Amino acid sequence: MKTSLGVVWSLSFACMALGANAAELELEGSRLVVSGMLDGTAIKAFEEHLFSGKVRTVVFENSLGGTPDVAREFAQAIRATGVNTEAKGQCHAACAYAFLAGKEHRFGRGFQVNGLLIPVSQRPRPADLVSRWSGEDGLKTLAEFAGPADDAPAAAEPPAPVAAATPAAAMPAPILKERWQPSQGVLFTSTPTLFGRVYNTFYCDGTQGRDMSRCELLSDADPYKLGVLTP
């Protein structure tokens, strides 16, 4: 387990250099390839592509960052147009939520290691591993990190900085909601072997750093049974 998991983590950080820049879009026939960070710079162009009716599949390739609010915008456009999604290489945090919004959502084919990291605030319970990511429930976790648009503070009155000594419980709710840890969550992996692909699911609490072998292997968490991947 440590060997394959270490490979996934090493590739994730190798790909992070590719995904550190702002999102880039490339139209390949009916496939729209999205790479890089979902930081909002490409959302207008992304929506134009999808609402043109020419795109059938959105491919997220090595996308390892972004904000919850932008993730919601990408997801809304994907759901509204009914396109499919595909994750090729590593798709973490904001990318994972946009990926789950697809009518059908699959890992890409090829010899690369695929990984989908869905941030969660705590270790999932057995009940979560039955229904948390099935259908519309797949996007409910996002509410833990990003509140409704009308929760945002008015632009004319920016919030005052919070003193370092202020307890977390006393901080305004929107500040807490907008935070997620990119290395904490449930990681679904697909690793190519001579006998086909091997699927594993892990919980990473964020303390593992670059050593993914410290993440906890979760049993009974097949991504197809959970609805994270569609046949």
Written account of the structure:
The protein has 231 residues and is α/β, with parallel strands linked by helices. It has one domain: Alpha-Beta Complex (2-enoyl-CoA Hydratase, Chain A, domain 1). Helix content is 26%, strand content 24%. The chain is built from seven helices and nine strands. Strands 1, 2, 3, 4, 5, 6, 7, 8 and 9 form a nine-stranded mixed β-sheet that branches. Helix 2 runs parallel beside helix 3. The chain is globular and about 40 Å long. 38% of the residues are buried.
Low-pLDDT segments: 13-19, 149-178
From the 3D coordinates, which CATH architecture would you assign?
Alpha-Beta Complex
H/E element sequence: HEEHEHEHEEHHEEEH
Q: DSSP strand (E) fraction?
A: 15-25%
Q: Biggest β-sheet: count, sense, barrel?
A: 9 strands, mixed
Structural class: alpha/beta
- Radius of gyration from CA coordinates: 18 Å
Q: Mean pLDDT, nearest integer?
A: 77
The tally of helices reads: 7
Shape: globular
Strand tally, please? 9
How is the CATH topology named? 2-enoyl-CoA Hydratase, Chain A, domain 1
